[in-house]
Each structure stands twice: as structure tokens, then as C-alpha cells.
Amino acid sequence: MAAVLFDLDGTLIDASRDIAGCANKVLASRGKPPLPLEQVVGFVGHGLGALVSRCMAASGIAEDAQTHAEMYAAFQACYVTSVDQTVLYPNVMPALTALQQAGYALGLCTNKPEAPTQAVVAHMGLAPFFQAASYGDGPYGRKPDPAPVAYVLDALGERDAVYVGDSETDAETAARAGLPFLLYTEGFRHAAVKDIPHHKSFNDFEALPDLVAATLSAG
């Protein structure tokens, strides 16, 4: 059977309030005012290191290696335990259940570091669905590098797959990995749907199992 690979933030879960809360807690420790939720969400998608750099720039904090490392460590320490305001997008759980019952191998490919990913996946009850995962702090690079996708597919023992995500980064990742891309339109994308290359788009996870079946059968 084929595999279905998923992005996490903005695709399966909305962790924006927890992400912004941790960012602003770290900034407050540096004497900086909070950034708006929407601005912090705009920094998501390229890994925690990039998010910290963008928060520093937006707050007027000069970036040097030591300061960045300190803020990165503080953010990650906060984020591992910050799951209370994170929610699943509607119909995610039924969709994952249907895909699993149909025999698809499910994998996770996220730029979030491993520790906070495992914490939130466990908290949201998603752990039983995923047989393999790649993380933003893994040895295989970060999306849009296709290496994390190849790592997950190798771990699953699958070659035929579809990638599900919400952003421009996910679209580029899928293209570079040679996989059809299904775009969830209600996540963290910054561009219009028409400007993001995708095979099919959807705004409700109820539609996903049928889209996956149709996409893979056509491929």
C-alpha cells in the first residue's frame, strides 16, 4: 500500500497560540514587548532557528550566535510543555482513522524539533497513527530539502506516496521529492491558493481520504 506524509503545524494542528506565547515569553525575558499573533505565525514554516531569528529581527535584537542559541534554548524549553492552546483542525482524527483503516502507511515530516513534536503529538492523541517521522533538528536537513521526506519513506518501506501540507514550503518540498501535493487551505500559507503549486486543494479533512485515493490511483 502507498504512504501519506503530513506536515504538522498548520496542517494537522493549529499551535499558533502556543508558539506565539513561547515567543513572547522569551522576548519578555529580554525586556521586549510582545509581538502580535499574526506576525509570529508569519514566521512559522522554516524551523525553530528561523523563527527565533525572525522574532529577534522584529524586536530589534541584534543576532549573534550566543544570543540566538540562548533564545533558541529558552523557546524550546517553553515549547516542550506548551500544548494547552493547541487544537486539531476539524475532522483530522476521522480522516487519519479512515486512512489508517484503508491500509495506508502514515508518516510525519515537520520542521518542528523532535521534543516539542513528540510532546504535542502525544497530547493530541496522534502518536498511534504515525509509523515514522522526521524533525527539524534531525540529521537529514529541513524542508524544503526533500531529504526528510526520503528518510520517512525509507522508514515506512514505501515509494508511492502523497504529501499533505499547508504552505509554500510544503509545496516546494513535495515538488523536490517528486510527490503529488495536497494543499490544506486553512493553515499557515502566505500566498493565495492559486499561487501555490498543488495537485488538489481542500478546506476540510473530511475530503482527504477520497482525495488521497484518487490522487494515488491516478498516479
Highlighted features:
alpha/beta; six-stranded parallel sheet; two-stranded antiparallel sheet; 13% strand
Summarize it.
By secondary structure, the chain is an alpha/beta fold. It is built from nine helices and eight strands.
Helix/strand layout:
Blueprint (H helix, E strand, L loop, with lengths): L2 E4 L6 E2 L1 H13 L8 H5 L6 H11 L6 H15 L7 E2 L3 H10 L3 E5 L4 H10 L8 E3 L12 H10 L4 E5 L2 H10 L3 E4 L15 E3 L5 H11 L1
Parallel strand pairs: 1-4, 1-6, 4-5, 6-7, 7-8
Antiparallel strand pairs: 2-3
Helix pairs in contact: 1-4, 3-4
**Sheet bearing the most strands, described?**
6 strands, parallel
C-alpha termini separation: 13 Å
Radius of gyration: 17 Å
Strand order of the largest sheet: 5-4-1-6-7-8
Which range best describes the helical content: under 10%, 10-25%, 25-40%, 40-55%, 55-70% or over 70%?
40-55%
Would you write up a description of this structure?
This protein is 43% helix and 13% strand. The chain has nine helices and eight strands. The chain has 219 residues and is an alpha/beta fold. The mean pLDDT is 94. It is elongated and about 55 Å long. The strands form two sheets. The chain has a six-stranded parallel beta sheet, sandwiched between helices. The protein has a two-stranded antiparallel ribbon with strand order 2-3.
